[in-house]
Amino acid sequence: MKKYLYLQDGTHFEGIAFGADTEIAGEVVFNTSMVGYQEALTDPSYANQLLTFTYPLIGTYGIDLAQNQSTGVLAQAAMVHTLENEPGPDGLTLDAFLKQYHVPGIHSVDTRALTKHIRQSHTMQAVLLNAPLTSDFDTTYQQLFAQCKKHPQLGHSTYPAKPHAGTTPHVVMIDFGTKKAIIDSLTDFGCEVTVVPYTADLAMIKNLHPDGILLSNGPGDPADYDVLPLIQALEHLYPTAGICLGHQILALANGAKTQPMAYGHRGINHPVHAADSLHAIITSQNHGYMVDPASLTNTDLVVTALEGDDGTIEGLAHKWLPMFSVQYHPEANPGPHDALGFFTQFKQLMEKKVAAHA
Ligand SMILES: NC(=O)CC[C@H](N)C(=O)O
User: Fold this and answer.
1) Where do the record's region annotations for CPSase lie (predicted)?
2) How far apart, in whole angstroms, are the C-alpha atoms of residue 302 and residue 319?
3) How far apart are CA 285 and CA 269, in angstroms?
């Protein structure tokens, strides 16, 4: 069966259907990683996005459920050049995995032309259909998007927490749609983690007696989350760190602004260097918004890291509060582990605070 991708600007692509036979709408984004299709498709930050991969062979090692980053496939669609529908350790293929979560796919698409088009014309909305488009784009888009919009899935929330043992730093994670790997990394670095939805209130969080607060990654526009008073209160009470959406929200909470990028950073080889050095680490990234550098002027934030290719702000710290954040993904999954120092830095910040109060 054929499948049809129509972009907002009238461009269209054809391919062969796989996964679920549903029709869907969302924003088209591309990921440049050679591996990690499963982690990307299950990363809640891709909710409401139709994800294409620049690497041509996708599905080569199947699906290994242990690598899921959330409770299911959160991307709206997978769009690939060559589908290699190989089974993973439990016999699950990419095609079967998408079907299981009612997510459509399209293969034999010219993903190179699609990506070049997005790079030139910038990220845009699209519909993925089972037949050629007959009515106008906007009507079809609105109808489909209303039917299939995905909300951040806060499937990891562990609240109410077990009583805190008190021997290891207790991180309360504000969950905007976290990747499992962030929770796993905190645990690996010796933290106890309680995950609360971003709709939690201050009293509930204080009751958990956190040693530190971590703002997770998540989908969509950071300016759409109604959480700034909560975050402002938290960062004055506890050591606070943020990853990706969490970084953007900390910037907003401190008076900076965020803005959409032309086509974002989604891949696992983005160089990042400290603001005062050209020594780079290679990072995993997935973001379509960024902090506006000009908006930092009247804030108490300082830039700590920059993207090596285009100078995007990749790290911020507060001048006097124990707060810092990164735009990249230190937890990798997929990607290199160069940035794991983030977790050491966060732990040290929490231990310093605990020691100061001892
Ligand atoms: N991975 C993330 O947290 C993404 C943050 C935000 N949704 C963006 O696209 O920029």
Assistant:
1) 1-169
2) 7
3) 8
Residue-wise over 99-125: b if at least 16 C-beta within 10 A, else e?
beeebbbbbbbebeebbebbeeeebeb
* 202 φ, ψ (degrees, to nearest 5): -60, -45
CB 17 within 8 A of CB 104: yes
134 Cα–ligand 1 center, Å: 33
The pLDDT of residue 149 is 80
DSSP 139-193: HHHHHHHHHHPPPP--TT--PSPPPP-SSS-EEEEEESS--HHHHHHHHHTT-EE
Sheet strands (E) in the chain: 2-7, 12-19, 24-31, 49-53, 57-58, 77-79, 82-83, 104-107, 124-129, 170-175, 192-197, 212-215, 240-243, 258-274, 280-291, 301-307, 313-318, 323-326
CB-based contact 254:228 (threshold 8 Å): no
Identify whether the C-beta of residue 272 lies closer than 8 Å to the C-beta of residue 287: no
pLDDT in tens, 298-357: 999 999 999 999 999 999 999 999 999 999 999 999 999 999 999 999 999 999 876 666
Residue 48 CB less than 6 A away from ligand 1: no
User: Which residue numbers are catalytic?
Assistant: 244, 329, 331
Total-model pTM: 0.95
Q: Is the CB of 52 under 6 A from ligand 1?
A: no
Query: For residue 252, what is the enclosing H or E element?
Result: helix 245-253
- Domains, in order of start, for the chain: 2-148 (3.50.30.20), 170-357 (3.40.50.880)
